[in-house]
């Protein structure tokens, strides 16, 4: 049949003759068959493309993405990335995005990238030995072999790949119900002899004794345990029995927990975190004579028969963290721990916000006790960090005048309103190396050894920026490190300065900080941010 003739008929008002209709029907059948053939071929080619893509993905997995990095560097990177592998027991597992998997089980994700990464990951039992269990309920039924294989094989795999490396284990417990012990717990608690660092976070009011009893390890020994962290209800006798079963325990973290030390006698402890009573403070350094680091709540209370003038002294403690801002009842907790401490070897002090008790809306009332602590301890403090503390700029300057050995100062104003903030233009002016100010009448500089200054989360909407520039320039003296016997008017070279504002815009500042450019190029690290925008970095 002539296609041209049929095409011409499409442009006329008369249709084809009867004989031509049969020819048209035949052509349509052929066209339909051709279309089916083409669609079949398209599907075949699509399958071939998918097969080739899958094959290419497999081949690419044989090529490390960073082939120039040595195995040792990759091991260090993997060690940093795989800080914890989380297993959640909250009902049926849900599909997980790759980014979620990377966060929850980084060791498994990294070992799946390529053959080289897998070889390196499998040679590092430490990245498989960090395990966190987080669950909200126990499913009250027995598990079949298929369910065990499907749902809990990854944990078995992690324990096997950790070989005999000591374990870091975190338990976050939200709810217990009656029933069989969960298979995940059976696996983890079967390895108590390998526990090195263990933390319990209990949201349901169960004591540590109950948890250990439910998991079948009450009375067990912990020969490798070096670090214990608990948050929740802890009975003194339970804690004592667990500590007694851990002869190598060095770090004990019991935040917001008040315990008695009558049964605690562990000279090997190097770090302790708890809320002490005055009775406890009196015995603390006798029971734990080798403490290197201590974290305590600021407010404390007396016990019966305790001398309120008791002084707890340690010549070995070098790091002290004090949680301020507790909303305790003043009649019950009238004292500051600073009143009872004497720490001549102290090097680092953190005044840390106690987040449990909400915002701070009252001025810090323990300045007098703090100053007595500074003067009686006569320490050579080098690092001071102050977070969320309602204190005036005048009082902060007064404190700094009495710590001339300070090298690193950080003041974080998170949550502090401008009128309550110690970070003011007057404070900056008082830090000038030779100029006096309304807060500093002495001609000798304060903080002559200062090398790093960080002023964070300043809420002020305006600031005298030229004073900041002038202060930094006055302390830029490259290569200058003062030693004993130098003039009281000499200062060390400031090496790092950071200041971040929460409520100021870049356009409001302009180029006022541009004079700091040459100093930054010469070696000082300068970071100044306005509402998240970095002006200098």
Automatic annotation (TrEMBL):
| Keyword ATP-binding in record | no
Database matches in Gene3D superfamilies: Ribonuclease Inhibitor
- Asked if the keyword Coiled coil belongs to this entry, the reply reads yes
Coiled-coil annotation reads 28-55
Q: Where is the signal peptide?
A: none
- Cross-referenced InterPro entries, in alphabetical order? LRR_dom_sf (IPR032675)
- Keywords attached to this entry: Coiled coil
Q: Which PANTHER family has this protein been placed in?
A: F-BOX AND LEUCINE-RICH REPEAT PROTEIN 6, F-BOX DOMAIN CONTAINING PROTEIN, EXPRESSED
- Would you tell me the protein name for this molecule? F-box domain-containing protein
Q: Which organism is it from?
A: Rhodocollybia butyracea
């Amino acid at each position: 049949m002539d296609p041209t003739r049929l095409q011409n008929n499409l442009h006329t008002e008369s249709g084809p003759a009867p004989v031509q209709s049969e020819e048209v029907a035949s052509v349509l059948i052929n066209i339909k068959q051709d279309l089916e053939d083409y669609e079949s071929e398209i599907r075949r080619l699509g399958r071939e493309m998918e097969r080739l893509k899958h094959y290419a993905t497999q081949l690419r997995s044989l090529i490390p993405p960073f082939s120039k990095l040595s195995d040792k560097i990759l091991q260090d990177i993997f060690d940093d990335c795989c800080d914890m592998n989380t297993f959640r027991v909250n009902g049926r597992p849900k599909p997980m995005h790759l980014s979620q998997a990377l966060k929850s089980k980084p060791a498994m994700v990294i070992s799946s990238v390529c053959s080289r990464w897998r070889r390196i990951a499998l040679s590092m039992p430490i990245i498989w030995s960090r395990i966190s269990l987080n669950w909200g309920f126990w499913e009250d039924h027995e598990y079949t072999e298929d369910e065990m294989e499907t749902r809990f094989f990854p944990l078995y795999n992690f324990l096997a790949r950790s070989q005999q490396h000591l374990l870091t284990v975190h338990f976050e417990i939200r709810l217990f119900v009656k029933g069989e012990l969960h298979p995940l717990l059976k696996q983890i608690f079967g390895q108590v002899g390998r526990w090195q660092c263990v933390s319990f976070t209990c949201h349901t009011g169960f004591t540590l004794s109950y948890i250990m009893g439910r998991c079948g390890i009450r009375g067990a020994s912990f020969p490798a345990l070096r670090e214990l962290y608990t948050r929740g209800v802890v009975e003194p006798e339970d804690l004592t029995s667990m500590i007694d079963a851990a002869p190598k325990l060095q770090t004990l973290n019991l935040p917001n927990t008040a315990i008695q030390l009558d049964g605690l006698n562990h000279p090997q402890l190097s770090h302790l975190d708890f809320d002490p009573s005055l009775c406890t403070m009196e015995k603390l350094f006798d029971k734990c004579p080798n403490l290197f680091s201590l974290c305590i709540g600021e407010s404390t209370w007396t016990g019966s028969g305790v001398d309120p003038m008791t002084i707890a002294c340690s010549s070995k403690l070098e790091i002290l963290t004090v949680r301020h801002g507790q909303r305790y009842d003043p009649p019950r907790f009238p004292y500051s721990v600073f009143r009872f401490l004497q720490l001549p070897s102290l090097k680092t002090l953190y005044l840390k916000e106690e987040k449990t008790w909400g915002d701070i809306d009252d001025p810090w009332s323990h300045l007098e006790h703090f100053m007595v602590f500074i003067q009686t301890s006569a320490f050579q403090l080098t690092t001071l960090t102050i977070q969320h503390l309602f204190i005036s700029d005048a009082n902060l300057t007064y404190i700094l005048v009495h710590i001339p050995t300070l090298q690193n100062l950080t003041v974080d104003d998170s949550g502090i309103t401008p009128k309550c903030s110690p970070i003011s233009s007057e404070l900056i002016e008082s830090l000038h190396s030779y100029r006096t100010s309304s807060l500093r009448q002495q001609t000798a500089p304060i903080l002559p050894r200062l090398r790093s200054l960080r002023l964070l989360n300043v809420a002020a909407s305006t600031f005298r920026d030229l004073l900041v520039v002038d202060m930094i320039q006055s302390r830029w003296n490259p290569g200058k490190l003062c030693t004993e016997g130098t003039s009281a008017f000499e200062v060390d070279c400031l090496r790092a300065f950071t200041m971040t504002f929460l409520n100021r815009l870049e356009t409001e500042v302009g180029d006022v900080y541009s004079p700091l450019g040459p100093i930054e190029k010469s070696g000082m690290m300068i970071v100044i941010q306005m509402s998240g925008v970095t002006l200098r970095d």
